[in-house]
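Q: Got a minute? One more chain.
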Amino acid sequence: MLDRSPQPEFTALPEMAAGDVTSIDRQILFLLSQRFALARAIGEGAWDDDDERRQAMAVIRRKAFELGVPVSLVSDFWDRLSDASIAVRDQASRK
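A: Always. Here it is, folded:
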């Protein structure tokens, strides 16, 4: 697919310790919690419109490629993230 090696300016420096990976993982989880809070509050990131979703995914795939992140992984992740955001938004609106 559209995968390429990570770009040096975006990769971890050799002197980074293994504990830094744990720190990055925690940051990812924190960012996901913020994203779902937005989905609950205002529906942000919950693409109902297929055209809007396709356009957003094209931008995300292109950025992943530029950064050297596996495009197939990012596509799958964002597709699932969008579905989960819709579910969180819908659940919040039923309360």
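A: The longest helix spans residues 18-42.
Q: Perfect, thanks.
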